[in-house]
Specification:
Strand order of the largest sheet: 5-4-7-2-9
Number of helices: 0
Oligomer: single chain
Shape: globular
Order of helices and strands: EEEEEEEEE
Largest sheet: 5 strands, antiparallel
Strand content: over 45%
Number of strands: 9
Helix content: under 10%
Mean pLDDT: 96
Length: about 110
């Protein structure tokens, strides 16, 4: 069996009306990077009860951040706040499907 990579990286675009479903990676942290387009709402929850939202974007004066971390085993979901957003995610140690969990349809943290 090959050794697990130190990190993996992907990029993708969310268009108006699209969102990533709630999910988590049990044993790896994920760093989200904003590349271009509208700001992105990155929702995250440590315990599946309370949640917080970090806005990724380029307008630092408005409190947007160009990147944010989702710690290992935290729930996360994202949505563009405009026509489109191009983002990237770096996972360390490298992403493996065996440690990925997708929430059931319609699930979200209880409060937030």
């Amino acid at each position: 069996m090959p050794a697990r990579g130190h990190s993996t990286a992907i990029y993708y675009m969310l268009q108006a009306g699209e969102h990533s479903h709630w999910h988590r990676v049990h044993d790896a942290a994920e760093v989200w990077h904003h590349y271009v387009g509208a700001p992105l709402a990155l929702h995250r929850s440590e315990d599946g009860v309370k949640s917080e939202t970090v806005i990724l974007g380029t307008d630092l004066a408005k409190g947007e951040r160009p990147q944010a971390i989702v710690p290992a085993n935290w729930w996360q979901a994202a949505e563009t706040l405009g026509d489109f957003t191009l983002v990237g995610c770096t996972v360390a140690p490298g992403f493996e499907f065996s440690s990925f969990e997708m929430a059931p349809p319609g699930w979200k943290p209880l409060a937030g």
